[in-house]
Amino acid sequence: MQTNITAGLENFISSVFATARITRVEPIQSLWGGYGDLLRLYLTGCEHSCVILKHIRLPQPADHPRGWRSDLSHKRKLRSYEVETYWYAHYAKLCPRWCPVPACLAVEKADSHIYLLLSDLAQSGFGKTLQRVSASQLKACLHWLAHFHAVFLQHRGEGLWQCGTYWHLDTRPDEWAALDDAPLQQAAGLIDAALKQCPYQTLVHGDAKLANFCFANKATAGASGVAAVDFQYVGRGCGMKDVVYFLGSCLSDTACLQQHAALLDDYFGTLVPALEKYQPRINGQDVERQWRLLFDVAWADFHRFLKGWSPGHWKLNHYSETLTQRVVQRFLVGA
Question: pTM value?
Answer without folding.
Answer: 0.93
